[in-house]
Amino acid sequence: MNRTSGTGAGSDLPPLLRFRNVTVETGGTRLLDGLTVTIDEGEHVAILGPNGAGKSSFIKTVMREYYPLAGGDVEFRVCGKDVWHISDLRSHFGLVSPDLQYTFTREITGREVVLSGFFSSIGLWWNRVTPAMEEKTDEILRFLDIDHLAHRQVTTMSSGEARRFLIGRALVHDPKALILDEPTTSLDLHALHTFRATLRKVAQAGTAVIMVTHMLSDIIPETTRIILMKDGRFCGDGPKEEMLTGERIGEHFGVPVRVREEDGWYYAVGY
User: Fold this and answer.
1) Residue 73 and residue 127: Cα distance in Å, rounded?
2) Do 216 and 223 form a contact (C-beta atoms < 8 A)?
């Protein structure tokens, strides 16, 4: 079932995303196949699917790295608009991914990582940092409880510490949504605990969290809606409690599985 209208807090505003019949191909390969979905402002959503489902391609389409095939019944809107200047569009979303973290594996401090978000750059180079940018950066560092790490080189940080600075970088423009692509890759238990707490703090502060993952345990308790994805299609969409069942998840991933819930967190066991 593809959902055609969201249920988020921003019901008086245009939807954050509205896609209808969005198909994406590159090099003759179909990556997304007729996606139809609406995500409202303020919704905390998880897009869940196996590797190769098309999740990262969906993110690239949201960020307009990919464009849908033209057609008479295609809708491709963000915040009610279908035509955007790319820099304006991308300020509406904060993206965190392992690929982005890899690009920051260089001699740069955590504070510079956050400041670079104002320029969509990797480092500061010759960009002019204003007092307002400095003030905003200090506010974010304190909010995320990473101000004590601000002057440490990223190359000396753990994966979890560096990823929290990427969240800070993503928040500099007060985005409408934080988009996370497989965000817990390479995190140990301590880093995972801290990272989860950071995401929950961001969600509770009012920034929508769109989680793209193949792991149930990545889905924070604030998430209310699950979209299942496979083979470039959305194949299920509904409230978390209805979607995260052993029967649904087992069928979706092709394994016998039990789903356990504990304090708002969901875990797949028995496979």
Assistant:
1) 43
2) no
Strands 208-213 and 45-48: parallel
pLDDT above 90: residue 5: no
Structure confidence at residue 106 as a pLDDT band (50, 70, 90) = confident
Amino acid residing at 127: N
Q: List the one residue out of 172, 20, 41 whose CA is nearest residue 95.
A: 172
pTM score > 0.70 for this model?
yes
Tell me how far apart the 2 most distant CA atoms of the chain are, in Å: 56
Q: Which domains does the chain have, with CATH numbers?
A: 1-92+175-182+208-271 (3.40.50.300), 95-174 (no CATH)
Query: What pLDDT score does 80 carry?
Result: 87
d(CA 46, CA 219): 7
| Alpha-carbon span 73 to 76, nearest angstrom | 10
Task: Give mean pLDDT, residues 60-72.
Answer: 88
